[in-house]
Each structure stands twice: as structure tokens, then as C-alpha cells.
Amino acid sequence: MLKKILLLLVLLLLVGCLLFSLVENKENVPLQKPPFKVALLLEGKKDDQGWDNQAFKGLQQIERELHAQIIYKQNISTEQVQVAETKKLAEEGYDLIFGNGRSFESIFNRVAPAYPNTHFVFFNGKSNVSNVSAVILRRSQSDTFLVWSQD
Question: Global pTM?
């Protein structure tokens, strides 16, 4: 349960930071804000009663609390499909793309430089690009905790 809460808090923190950076208005001109667009790529199915299901619930909470426009894609499990879907979402103007699994590490680090207006987040790996972040879940003796990594 604590793991779910921590994961949700990290997701909300990341989205909040990204929202703040997107709406910064240095000239004090009234902003006509486009919808904040968030995508989730799942290696499996959203109703797997496991990791992908928890990520999907977090996406739904982002939609409810931040009024974001969301989309999710299921069974994105091969490298070819992961690359194609990642590029498609970035080209469609998604502000934030989550890849639910470490398999997205190399994909996001490779694709992200071509899409500087999109931020990419995956779990358990290392980010090598400024618009890519890794959320690392580590197990300690007492409980699970999160480490934020953005190089």
C-alpha cells in the first residue's frame, strides 16, 4: 500500500513540476492554455491486477485532479512497437509520456532528443537526456522507497 501511495505522489509531483514549467509566462500576457496531455504506455494490460493496473489508476487520478487529457496504450511490449508509439505520441503533442517499465529506458533516451517539448518518464533505470526522468523503486529492509533520478 505504501508503495502505491509513494508512486502516486511521485507521479503527481512530476506532473506538477512539468505543469509549472509549461505555464510560466514571463511577459504576463494572458495565456490560452491548451490541454495538458499525458500518455501512458503499458507493456501489458491495464487490468492486470498488478503494476500496469496501478499505473493506469495513477493516470486516471492525473486526469481527475489535473484535468489532463489522457491516453493509454496496452501491450506495448516489443522494441519496435515501443519506438513507434513513443514517436507517435510525441508528434501528437503529448506533454508527458510515461513508460511503465524499464524496457522504456533505452527507447526514451534514444527518442527524446528529437522531441524537446515532451517529457518522458520510465521506472528503474538511468536517464541520459534532459527531458527524460527515471523513477527508481528500491527495496530496503524496512520498506520500499523512491529515488528520483534525472541526469
Answer: 0.73
